[in-house]
Specification:
Structural class: alpha+beta
Strand content: 35-45%
CATH architecture of the largest domain: Beta Barrel
Helix content: 25-40%
Shape: elongated
Mean pLDDT: 85
Number of strands: 20
Distance between the termini: 101 Å
Number of domains: 4
Largest sheet: 16 strands, mixed
CATH topology of the largest domain: Elongation Factor Tu (Ef-tu), domain 3
CATH superfamily of the largest domain: Efflux pump adaptor protein, beta barrel domain
Order of helices and strands: HEEEEEHHEEEEHHEEEEEEEEEEE
Low-confidence stretches: 1-14, 19-37
Amino acid sequence: MTIRTPSGASLHILRIARVAAFGATLALSGCGGKGGGDDRNKTPALPVMRVELATADLSTEYSVRLEGRADAEIRPQVDGVLQEILVKEGDPVRKGQPLFRIDDAAYREQYNTALAAQHAAEAQASVAKVNADKLVPLVENNVVAPVQLTTAKAQAQGARATAEQATAQARSARINLDYTLIKAPVAGYIGRIPFRQGTLLTKNQTQPLTTLSDVGQMFAVFSISEIEFARFKSLYAGNTIDEKVSNVPPVSLTLSDGSSYPHHGKLESLSGGFDRLTGSIGMRASFPNSDGLLRSGNSGTVTLTARFNDIMLVPQSATVDLQDKLFVFVLEPGNKVRKQVISVSGKSGPNYIVKSGLKPGESIVTAGIDKLKDGAVIKPTGTASSSAPARLNTR
């Protein structure tokens, strides 16, 4: 077998052909990679949301101080020695229940003396009336002069006045006697009792015997600023303040430990004017407290809500803030986006309440808008709706 080897020229030509073929392969491979791997020519896929009319609850929180329906200071009405303490601190008491007893010996004697004087005066008045009555037929028969009857009637009238005065003195003495047994003016809970048995009490003393809190109904007292008051008037329906107050939905209460009070309350009243020092106006909401969970002096937070119907909500993350203006990107036919200025009437939580600039049914881009330009073409990846109810918090 004979094997022929290429000459030197043939080998050189073969090497050139191989290099050319390898270069062509690289060129074709490079062209194919360039055509399929340049991300700058891709259409961005961005999520969109359809804006529709929605319902939202706007909530506002205020710090409150709780007060009972009546916080009565129990004070002595007569002077005397504290003879008996009939309750303990923290006891629940009913209206009219005895709380303290003052030594009544002196007052009982005063009442007995006044009562005896009343009976004597009434007897004298009866005698004077009898004397006047028996002169009537004598005057009619011209037995005695009419002046005697007139005098007898005047004496009877004076005796009756004396008897009425004695009766009033007896009633006064009885009142003082009754004051020696101090009773609860309202139902509630007994506060601190700083006095002990044997203490001398006076009706003019500055310190009360105790404080009685009627907590069957509790009041949450708070204040709002002038700006918040103007906002309050715009949130609720009604021609007068009383009508607006009555249209506030039930109020919720959060206690100082963060727990929610199980009963809802009602906004009841608004102060007549603003405080000159603080520039705020007082408000009060009432809460039932039949189970006695609340006490006067507790603190907490009340939440007032207002419902908005047929409004448009957009996420704050779907907006761009530029030169004190808010923009969104509206999706148009052909999947082009248009940069649109919007006006909002409220900002709270994750949403804006849109006042103008959008129409129900329009779709907006909700993410990836930082580098998005007006007129750009996108690939929408979602059609989420904004019609779901929302709850907004202003504090």
